[in-house]
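Good morning,

Attaching, inline, the backbone tokens for the sequence recovery test we're adding to the shared suite. The designed sequence is right after.
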């Protein structure tokens, strides 16, 4: 007799359980999530679309040279790709690391997010780009707009997402965005308008060309 509301944030089959169909109301963050929920037996009358959003008072482009200077001083001169996401297979760090080997040596990548760096550091050593990879455990939300504004592009070529809030954060800050051409990112980003959406996001050379 107690109404149940379920909020679904992921598209991975292991994360969307059949029991969602018994909820009275189901909040889905994207059409991609809604599709997975419907596939579990829910009906459209149960579903409400509630996308993620960002605080534009925090996430907006920063242009103050004094605010951006500490980032520029922190790294050697060059072009910087920013990957924001946990260090897990979903976020496709491995393809981005391999893509670095196809880019000129002045290109480097900053990987910001929690997780075990060790397998990715090992891969970077194997493909000869370890000196061009920088590892950061976490960046405070209040500081992320500086990183999005400073980087040459933000590239998180995820294998799947429920929504991918980092992409609207980056967009709100005017960053050049390179990501996978999959739902949900292609629901709110338009290729060659607000982002570069890559169909073959598992191919290092293709990802490198997009960057």
């Amino acid at each position: 007799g107690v109404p149940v509301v379920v909020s679904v944030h992921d598209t991975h089959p292991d994360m969307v359980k059949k029991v969602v169909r018994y909820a009275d109301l189901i909040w889905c963050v994207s059409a991609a999530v809604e599709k997975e929920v419907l596939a579990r037996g829910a009906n459209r009358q149960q579903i409400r679309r509630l996308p993620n959003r960002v605080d534009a008072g925090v996430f907006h482009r920063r242009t103050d040279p004094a605010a951006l200077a500490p980032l520029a001083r922190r790294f050697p001169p060059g072009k910087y790709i920013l990957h924001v996401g946990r260090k897990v297979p979903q976020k496709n760090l491995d393809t981005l690391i391999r893509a670095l080997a196809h880019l000129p040596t002045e290109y480097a990548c900053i990987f910001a997010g929690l997780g075990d760096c060790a397998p990715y550091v090992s891969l970077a050593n194997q493909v000869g780009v370890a000196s061009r990879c920088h590892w950061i455990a976490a960046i405070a939300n209040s500081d992320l707009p500086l990183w999005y504004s400073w980087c040459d592009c933000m590239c998180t070529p995820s294998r799947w997402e429920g929504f991918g809030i980092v992409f609207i954060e980056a967009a709100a800050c005017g960053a050049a965005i390179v990501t996978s051409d999959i739902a949900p990112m292609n629901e709110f980003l338009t290729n060659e308008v607000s982002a570069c959406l890559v169909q073959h996001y598992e191919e290092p050379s293709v990802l490198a060309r997009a960057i």
